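Protein modeling request. Please complete all fields; requests missing the sequence field cannot be processed.
Requester role: graduate student
Desired output: 3D structure, token encoding
Chains: 1
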Amino acid sequence: MRSDLTAVVLDAAGVPFCDSVGLSALIGVLKQSQAAHKRLALSGVHGTLARLLALTGLAQAFEIHDDVQQAIQAIQAAGSGA
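Delivered output (82 residues):
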């Protein structure tokens, strides 16, 4: 993860399937972002990934938005103190 980033938006809109390997990778990225004090937002979460996040309770651990633009707007609004 680049040190000059304040946030990362991971667009999952094109992800047709997610299994335990993919979920483990997401958890790893989440831990890295938390350790670096960076925001991690997911966008376009649907299908298998949405079900996995809900079933495991990880939906509460991730910042989830409908699309990339919504995620960016939320990050910018938080950065401006709005």
